[in-house]
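Batch manifest, entry 17 of 40.
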Amino acid sequence: PYVPNHMEGLAAAYWGQDRHKEAIESCKEALDISARTHGEIRGETANISNVLAWMYTQLGRYSEASELNLKALETRRKQLGEQHPETLKSMSRQGFIYRKMEKYEEAEKLLLQAEKIAYRVFGNDPRITYRSVEDLIERYEAWEKPEEANNGRAKLPQ
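Output type: C-alpha cells
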C-alpha cells in the first residue's frame, strides 16, 4: 500500500531534476498501482491524480490535466464534501486549467462556486477564502474583464 506514495516521491525527484518524462512515467505507474490497491475513488488515488495533473499543466498538456483533475475533484466531493479545503483546492486548480484552455466561462462558474462555499464555511480565512478570490481575479484579468477583477480586489483586505 505504500508503493504508490514512494513512486510519487520518486516522480517529484525526477521532476526536480527536469527529467519530466521519467517523472510522468513514475507518477502514472503510482496512479495505476494506487487505483488497483486503494481503489479508483480514494483519497490516495486522488492525491496522485492531482500531482500528475499538475505536471501535465506545467507542460501545457491541459486536456490531460483537466481529465485527471476532474476525476480527483469528483472523488473529493464524494469523500470529503463540497466544503472541505481539499475540494476547494481541486476546484481552484480546475479553474486554473480551464483558464489555460481559454474556457473562461467554465472557469468563472467553478471559481464563483468555490468562492461562495469558502465565504460561507470559512469566512475571511486568508488561506482559503482569499485564495479563491485571488483565483477569480486572475481569471478575470486573463479574460480581460477589469471591472470584475476590481470587484474581486475590493473583497480582499487592504
